[in-house]
Amino acid sequence: MFRKEALGHRKMPWQGKALLLPGTSPWFTALVCLFFLFSFILFVTFGTYTRRVNVGGEISTHPRPVSIYSGVQGFVVKKYVTEGQEIKKNDPLYRIDVSKSTRSGVVSDNHRKDIENQLVRIDNIISRIEKSKSSTLEALNKQKKQYSDALERSSAILTRAEEGISIMKTNMENYRHYQMKGLINKDQLINQVALYYQQQNNLLSLNTQNEQNALKITGLESELRTQEAEFDNRIYHMELQRYELQKERVNADAEGEIIIRALSSGKIDSLSVSVGQMINVGDSLLQIMPDTFSAFYLVIWVPNDAVPYIAINDNVNIRYEAFPAEKFGQFSGTVQLISKAPASQQEMQTYQGAPTDRAAAIPYYKVLVRPDKQTIPYNGKILHLENGMKAQTTLFLEKRKIYQWMLAPFYDMKHSATGPVHE
Fold first, then answer.
1. N or C: which end of the chain has fewer CB within 10 A?
2. What angle do CA 52, 57, 58 make, to 5 degrees?
3. pTM, full prediction
4. Nearest-angstrom CA–CA distance, 199 and 281
5. Reduced to 3 states, what is the DSSP secondary structure of residue 24?
6. Residue-by-residue DSSP string for 313-324
7. Residue 126 and residue 171 in contact, taking contact as beta carbons nearer than 8 Å
């Protein structure tokens, strides 16, 4: 009577009568089970599900913002622009000092001074050569003019002498007739013939002198061309040396200071360095926002197993990290462009929202999505999309029956057990 169980029973006696309720009817339980089974069969048979995949990306404009990096190592000595400034193509942005200094001074400055001195000497040499050319050609032209005048005078004298010889020849023939008629003696005829031949010898001397003057003029013309060509050749060689020195001066300038210029128009978005700061190769200098762009686009990277199921103008869901979906919800977008070839690693590295884990070497395709809303209203304000904002995108792929998704492992078993396909 004094067992532990008996004492416990006395402490907790029932205060009323026990009632036994009747159980549920087996037919009702069977009907409920059949209803749920039938509903499940209908759902599996006629229900569908669209496979979807979530991919990452970032907001960007078209054209993209231009990031300018340093191609040299040096110090920033001057800044030409400020944040928010409008710039044009080829406007200067930074001046960078890349020179080296030794005990004798800055190497590039000394090199440039030497080149400048050589250029001055070459210019002086060219000037002296041109003066020599001018004086030489002037002297030769004077000689040519003198010989031309002499040739003109000798030609006139020769013409008159030929006329006199012709007259003397006529007189000599007349004297022959006079002698035959007995009007003159033989001595007079001989004197006339001797005088004719003497004048003819003089004419020959005049003709020789005239030809010498013509030959001298021809020689002077040849010498003029030769001297002019020699002087031009010397000037040409000196100019070649000057061009080479000018090229060397350009290289010397590049070794001293270089100017970073803008290759596109736009607005300065951010400056990464300040005056006096040392920069290395590859350091970011500034970013330029395009002055005109149509809209913001979402650049996403889609794996190759999802690309065949998307098409242009497909609708997608977008969730921005800057605008949490728990508060702002999802936003709609439309596929605008699908690349035909996989994106290269170099291209993907230029986007911060590109997949970083590419160890499996999965091909990714670049897809542009245009958000339907370019601005987001919030508490009476308008929030704008900005370059570089990260976002997650849900893509809707192929659509199948529920039972097909459930039997997918068996399809894999069937494919693995199937023999060679001859279709």
1. C
2. 145
3. 0.58
4. 96
5. coil
6. T-EEEEEESSS-
7. no
